């Protein structure tokens, strides 16, 4: 069997922060018992602590080719699934406003939404969607003593064998992106499956298909006619998040250009980026800054009336060209419940 790798590119210049991708994933995959707090897809405001809270400082990944243990995130750091007094407000007539039942929370998956950083008039933020990176060198696979996590040769999707998993959670410690969750009811680890039942039938993952901003591109990395190869390898405008973690992730990002900054007189300052390069470098390394330079050069070409295949691809005039052969309509399939 030929070994291939699926990838995803997310254009951060187009993300609306609307959470349609998050809801699409939630409705499809994480509505069972014990999965209430799970958000396999999440969209965080950056700079921000994200979910789980402070995940970028929790460790994991590889050290000298050995999977290293990081911090095991708690449910509270992910953000618990709170219960609200819906019945009393909407049906009982007993209360006038929605409130959380029990202890009031102090964190959640979108707790610091739209807060950002910087100072007026040059404050800034952008949205960062995240799923499992389905890494080429997954730390979760290396850390699992049960061999319960594997990487499929035909498409590179990383999956948890729930029958083999015993809930040791070494995978959660080792994953530097903290995108593995623990089902406290079933005592197993669970994570994004890249919608493999859809992929096997030629349908793009739900988070990509449902995105109203046309943010997500899907396809095989070695498909030279597909969007992933072009954006990542050919044009180098899409880069991985935190490459220093050493897992060789297969989800890539087009860095955000950000709006033009203002100088002390309130005029546009084209020479000063609103989003500091040092911050972007902390997320994507130097290739992220270089990708942004390439993107800005292509924007300049377009403004001069010249053509830009890069921008035409990112604009995505035709949505079905975004999915590298996975554009089949899911309504055309006959789904059978197990």
Note down, in words, how this protein is organized:
The protein is an alpha+beta fold and 338 residues long. The chain has a single domain (6-80, 106-332), classed as Alpha-Beta Plaits (2-Layer Sandwich), CATH 3.30.70.20. Helices cover 24% and strands 16% of the residues. It contains eleven helices and 14 strands. It has helices spanning 20-29, 75-78, 86-92, 139-143, 170-174, 196-199, 206-209, 227-234, 277-284, 286-303, 309-315, and strands at residues 6-11, 42-46, 62-63, 66-67, 126-130, 149-151, 158-160, 180-183, 188-191, 216-220, 239-240, 251-254, 260-262, 268-273. It has a four-stranded mixed beta sheet. It has a two-stranded antiparallel ribbon with strand order 2-5. A two-stranded antiparallel ribbon has the order 3-4. A hairpin with a 4-residue loop joins strand 8 (180-183) and strand 9. The longest helix is centred in the last third of the chain and has 18 residues, at 286-303.
């Amino acid at each position: 069997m030929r070994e291939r790798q699926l990838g995803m590119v997310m254009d951060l210049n187009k993300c609306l922060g609307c959470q349609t991708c998050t809801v699409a994933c939630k409705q499809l995959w994480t509505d069972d018992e014990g999965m209430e707090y799970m958000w396999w897809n999440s969209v965080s405001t950056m700079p921000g602590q994200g979910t789980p809270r402070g995940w970028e400082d929790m460790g994991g990944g590889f050290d000298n080719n050995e999977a290293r243990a990081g911090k095991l995130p708690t449910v509270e750091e992910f953000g618990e699934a709170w219960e609200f007094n819906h019945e009393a407000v909407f049906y009982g007539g007993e209360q006038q406003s929605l409130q959380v039942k029990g202890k009031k929370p102090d964190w959640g998956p979108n707790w610091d939404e739209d807060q950002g950083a910087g100072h007026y008039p040059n404050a800034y933020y952008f949205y960062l969607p995240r799923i499992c990176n389905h890494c080429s060198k997954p730390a979760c696979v290396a850390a699992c003593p049960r061999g319960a996590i594997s990487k499929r040769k035909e498409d590179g999707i990383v999956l948890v064998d729930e029958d083999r998993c015993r809930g040791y959670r070494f995978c959660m410690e080792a994953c530097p992106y903290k995108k593995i969750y623990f089902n406290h009811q079933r005592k197993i680890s669970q994570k994004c499956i890249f919608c493999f039942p859809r992929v096997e039938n030629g349908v793009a993952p739900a988070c990509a298909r449902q995105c109203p901003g046309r943010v997500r591109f899907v396809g095989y990395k070695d498909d030279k006619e597909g969007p992933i190869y072009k954006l990542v390898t050919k044009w180098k405008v899409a880069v991985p998040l935190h490459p220093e973690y050493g897992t060789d992730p297969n989800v890539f990002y087009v860095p955000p250009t950000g709006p033009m900054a203002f100088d002390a007189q309130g005029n546009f300052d084209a020479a000063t980026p609103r989003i500091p390069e040092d911050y972007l470098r902390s997320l994507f390394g130097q290739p992220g800054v270089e990708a942004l330079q390439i993107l800005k050069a292509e924007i300049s070409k377009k403004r001069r009336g010249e053509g830009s295949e890069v921008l035409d691809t990112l604009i995505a005039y035709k949505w079905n060209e975004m999915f590298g052969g996975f554009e089949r309509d899911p309504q055309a399939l006959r789904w059978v419940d197990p």
